[in-house]
Amino acid sequence: MRKLVLFGMVGVLAQLIDGALGMAYGLTSTTLLVAVGTAPAAASATVHLAELGTTAVSGVSHWRFGNVDWRTVRMMTFPGFVGAFLGAVVLSSISGDTAKPWVAVILSVLGVYVLFRFLGKPRGPRPRAGRPLPLALLAPLGLGAGFLDAVGGGGWGPVGTPTLLASGRMEPRKVIGSVDTGEFLVALGARSRSAWSCCCWPGACSPPPWPPGWSSTWPRASSA
């Protein structure tokens, strides 16, 4: 039970940061799950399932406050859906022992990158009205960020938000609102891999392994 309360508190804090900065929920939650012994594929699937709810609420909130640029959302998110699906396929096709070091490296690099971007001195041009960002930038950005998000459990925000901010063509609130809103479809892409596997190979739908010290009867944790 204490672990459930801890995970709940981390989820609240992570989503609070994510809603304000456009990143951190997946990065924080996946790092915690991997640290307690969850297999990388199971951690990524769990986080993206939770993100279906958190990103939906966050997206509606940003939309109500006028923080969403729907053109950017469309051009980034659909390639992001494809990238997330492919990333989930790659992650689930390799063993947990092989994936853990790579996921740890990805999470560490993303964490250092986030600190460097937001604790350093502001750089780049100030946001200004002008030409919208081209599809040639948004589509590859969405594809790569979605793939990294599924493989590492985080990456859509840490990659997408700083890149859009650095372009200088969008207001920060529009960048954060658009990235948060688009993340719903990216999380859906990562989770759709499981649904696709269940339809094609019913035997692939076995439940993921539980972390050490957890009971298989959710939500109770074992006393061990």
Q: Could you give the count of β-strands? A: 0
Q: Could you list the spans in which at least 5 consecutive residues all have pLDDT below 50?
A: 206-211, 214-224
Number of helices: 8
Q: Report the average pLDDT across residues.
A: 75
Q: Give the class from helix and strand content and strand pairing.
A: mainly alpha
Pattern of helices and strands: HHHHHHHH
Largest sheet: none
Distance between the termini: 12 Å
Radius of gyration: 18 Å
| Cα shape | globular
Strand content: under 5%
Number of folding domains? 1
The proportion of residues forming helix, as a percent range, comes to: over 70%
Key features of this structure:
224 residues; mainly alpha; 8 helices; 0% strand; globular; disordered C terminus
Short structural description:
This protein has 224 residues and is mainly α. It is built from 8 helices and no strands.
